[in-house]
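pasting for the record
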Amino acid sequence: MSRFNQEIGRSQGQITKMELQKKRKDRINIHLEGEYAFSCHIDMIFEYKLDRGVALSPTEVKALVEADDLKMAYLYGLKIALTRSISIAGCRRKLLQLEFDEISVTAAIEQLLENNYLDDLRYAQNYYEMKQHIYGRYRIQQDLMRNGVDKSIVVQVVSEMADDDLELEEALHLVKRRYSQKDLCLDQKTYAKIYGFMGRRGYSASVIRQVMDQLRSQNKEEAPELGI
């Protein structure tokens, strides 16, 4: 059923009235033979040459409602794609949540892809660039696949963008920001706590060990100044 026409009224007859909706100025209510029939985006009036006196058959009404639903699914999808970085699967999920039917959503997604408003490779690259300062590559990889990005794209992006030195630097900075100097005494309890924290952030065991080694080294260098 159409997202904007949950209940279709009269299904055939001559258009006797066309009026702007009060709450949505981009939509028109169409009346056939004096009775409400359906609503459509204002552009549909021009695209399908709708006017008072034009007769519509049940088949034409059905086609108009379906075309309107597709148009609105595309416009909503466009708004989503322009206001946030989102995957193809994420955009599809949003449109389905807005109660657009599967056929309209699929067609809208195809149009968005064709017009380059959706691109999972670009999305994955942007996501990696943004998240590499707070997560390790494994967490980012899992998040991308959970967001519906194909594994082959995720593997490509991670292999191209992952930087071992930068990841270690970001991991060390993250731990120092999370824990005070006093907390970084690196006894067994603190070690386990930091290990768990970094593991949840998606850092590998190798990166975690390197961070621990650097923290131990720094603690030894600072110990005389701290009077330890």
